[in-house]
What we know:
About 40% of the residues lie in helices and about 20% in strands. It is of the alpha/beta class and about 500 residues long. It has 2 domains: about 10-265, 3-Layer(aba) Sandwich (Aldehyde Dehydrogenase, Chain A, domain 1); about 270-460, Aldehyde Dehydrogenase, Chain A, domain 2, CATH 3.40.309. Strand 12, helix 10 and strand 13 form a beta-alpha-beta unit. The protein is globular, with a radius of gyration of 23 Å. It starts with a helix and ends with a strand.
Amino acid sequence: MNQQDFADIRKQWASDAGPVVDMLIDGNLVQASDGRAFACTDPYSGQDWGQVPLATEQDVDRAVRAAHRAFEEGVWRRKPAAQRVAVLRRFADLIEANARDIGLTAVRENGKLFSEMYYGVLAFAEDCRFFGTLAETVHGYTIDMPMPGYSAWTRREPIGVVAAITPWNTPLNLLGWKLFPALATGNSVIVKPSEFTPVSTLLVAKLAIEAGIPAGVLNVVTGAGEVGNWLISHALVDKIGFTGSGATGAKIAKVAAERHARVSLELGGKSPNIVFEDADIDEMLKWTVLSLFATAGQACNAGSRILVQRSIHDRFVEQLAATARNVRWGDPLDPETQMGPLSNRPQLAKVSAYFDCAREEGLSVVAGGGRPDHPGFFVQPTIYADAKPDSRLILEEIFGPVAVVIPFEDEAEAIRIANDTRFGLAAGVWTRDLARAHRMIEAVRAGTVWVNTYRVGTHAIPFGGFKASGIGRETGIEALEAFTEVKSVWVNHG
Ligand code: NAD
């Protein structure tokens, strides 16, 4: 598509009310049982569009019971793994064939760059293929028994009914990390997407029927936290896979603990991106644009604490400021745009409140620090300096295109500052010194460490957090473990 095609789409969106979409419950595309619905908002224009069902508690109950019935009857888990693989491959092909429309929908509900969302949909299809293929590799192991006449081995079995609760910032990819390993291993799933970004998930759910996923095995219910709470509180839900804020994650973990349901949590971060004096600064700045600003900072693994060695601090801050000021922000559909708006109104209010906080705390504004004069949910790419260690802008996740630069003297101080956080999701290290890179990899307490790059990822590598950034891992082989129980078998054969 060229610039004119995107301009035409933008014009069309300005004049159309958007689709009326359905939930997926027990193989049927349905509206809410009481007919209530809610709208999405386009973060670029601020205009409402679309009509999404607002699920009732009865709808959630029906979805969970359908998932439970499908699991008990074994319509999916008892299929030979090769057949599940074939269905998931068909599902992946359908997602890929519809990537343009799904990507555009994701931009309309979320405001991130089309380039990112489109490739995100292709990656989502690849994740489906990857985990689908792994379905044939899920197996236990045999154990040499010291007792004669006994054999023993383990089996990996699906957990049962899985609730997948997803956030708005990367709706499909974070869904895929739960949905595909859960389906590959034979579970039934009920998805509750974010109330800000439900439509792309509903488009995908429709394709699941076409792919041949049996009724009840995949269900999607839509609505806000109340709907999510009905879902995770349901006695028939065996496992909750959640990505979102720490506050919601803690509530979910408490509810799950009451009935001993399994839970995995992918939560927030305040990741250090550590720049040593021997680093390739141009390369580091290039990745900062891609990893911090391209997402408008709405990435759990954003490198929002930039630690810089004092010997290069002043020069680096100037270069970073120029980079931030030169970021081309605007219409996320325009291929030239480097940063779109924030995804929703509450997020705009939250980031704006941090601008006020920075003023009150007396931080130095190196770039940005406010809102441009433009409709939609835009804020400026922002860099702060001179923050005290107890600044809220250093301690708290902002989830916007905002970073704080923090100087350090030497490696020991860099490690101390990097680890001085309740989070532990990710970290970046920029240095040409291989030995130092290895020391840092070992010393930094985070689920992912990138050296001389930032925020690259693939389904083959596990992702998740240390400390308050989460419990468990998604992607990688670990994801299959997260959706299976281990059964140990003993046989006395005399
Ligand atoms: P959120 O916690 O507000 O909402 C996440 C989901 O939980 C939504 O679907 C929401 O409707 C639902 N929900 C809210 N209250 C609920 C309840 N009581 N019971 C059940 N469900 C409930 O988070 P958000 O604002 O959508 O997402 C942003 C957050 O997600 C950030 O903190 C970010 O760091 C985190 N995140 C983490 C990762 C990761 O992989 N670690 C990735 C992306 C985002």
